[in-house]
Amino acid sequence: MRVHDLSVPGNLSRVSWKLSRTVLRGGTSRKVGPLLDRKSGKERQPFHFGMKDKSLFAFAGVWDCWKSKAGQVVESCSILTTAPNDLLEGVHDRMPVILPRRHYQAWLTAPATEAERLAELLLPFDASLMHRYPVSSLVNKPQNDVPECALEVRSPEIHTQLW
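The structure assignment produced for this chain is given below.
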């Protein structure tokens, strides 16, 4: 869910401020950090993104529990996205909202009436604290949940401009 969608007048997403907020871990022991592809024509190069200090990090999210038309209870969540920082802008047009550790408590406990204060937390993360490197296309298949998915590979040049 794009952060911008939370404040668009008349947009149903604006009720999301009233949803329960959550913090979702942004790394695991195998694939630390999100993996995104940069495309050029049919060519794709996946990248690993993480913290320079190798620490785990958290995404800002919202969640809700509701009943479907069939009466089934559905628990759902969404990671909020924002404009890309300098490290991601050449790869994707948005990035997950990464919360600095000092803001976890505010994100989880501030009342919805403090929407302006919460919105100040939903900015692109400081690119100078992050790193990225190319990884194998092995990561593009979910059944390949192996440590090799997060290993750095030599990146083939992907041409983004014509002569």
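Interim note for the steering committee: Confidence is low (pLDDT under 50) at residues 8-15, 28-32, 157-163. The first strand starts at residue 20 and ends at 25.
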